[in-house]
Every structure is written in C-alpha cells, then in structure tokens.
Amino acid sequence: MTVFEGRFTDTAGLNIAVVVARFNDLVTGKLLSGCLDCLSRHGIDTAPTSGQLDVAWVPGSFEIPLVAQRLAASGRYQVVITLGAVIRGDTPHFDVVVAEVGKGVAAVARDTGIPVIFGVLTTDTLQQALERAGIKSNLGWSYAMQALEMGSLMGALGRSELC
Ligand code: INI
Fold it and tell me: How many domains does the chain have?
C-alpha cells in the first residue's frame, strides 16, 4: 500500500501565488495577513524579490477565477490561493458572485492541474466575516496550511511512478 500525504514543511522549491479581492478589504486584508504570516513561519520566503510568493489584487471576488487561471497556467507556481469575502447582507447578487467564483476556482484547478485553494468567505454579515478573518480565528492561516499541504502532496504524487 502506498499512502500519499502532504507535509507542511516541504517548502523548498514551492512557489505560491495569492489572488486577493479588494472588495471588503477590511476582511480580505486580514485574511491576507494571516495567510502570509503562516506561509512565512513555515519557510516560504515572502520577501518581494524572492520569487517564491507573489500576490495579485483583483477588484472583487468575481474576478478571482480569471486571474487565478492566468497564474496557474503560467507554470511558475505549484499552488494558487484565492482570498475574498462575499457578504450576503450587502450583496443583492450574492448568489451570482458566490456561484461564479466557486465554479470558476474549481474549474481552474481541474483545467490546469494546479491546486487552487478556495479562500472566499461567504457570510450573511460583516460581523461573521470579521470573526473568520481575525476576531475569533483567521481562516487566512488555514488556507495557507491547505496550500502547503496540497503543494507537498502534488509534489509527492509527481515524483511517484504510480501517478
Ligand atoms: N465582490 C466581493 O468580493 N464581495 C462582495 O460582497 C461583492 N458585492 O457585495 O457585490 C463583490 N462585488 C464585486 C464583484 O465581485 C465584481 O468585482 C464586480 O461585479 C465587477 O465585475
């Protein structure tokens, strides 16, 4: 039996791109801070010139899939992390934005073979979003952990003769 699983410290040669939405940046900025803190503390070089981590800002969550697709297809990154916040209370077209970004992110991962972490919060209120972005916990940290795990797992699968 072969068991494949990702590690969280397997960061050498792992290049990561983050796509983050400016809409609700009170929330998304905090998600990004938590995400970068986690990546940095697990060995990812977050210095501007490192080339190991790049961040792309998009206007809103609706634009995330297009830019994630460009980054994932570039061949420069092993993982893409997406960060956004869609809040129902403020968003008459909440369902449209949520459906598009969810389907879009899944399609990018399938089409490119690059893991794309879905870090788009969908909440009823701003308070709920803030609670997930630092007031109680910061899911940006969790998304970073999932990115490290997937990057490591995909690397292990790629080195295997089985896959
Ligand atoms: N974008 C978000 O990321 N979150 C939202 O809550 C939101 N609201 O409220 O509308 C939102 N809208 C902008 C959208 O993502 C696009 O940027 C815009 O429609 C231009 O294409």
Answer: 1
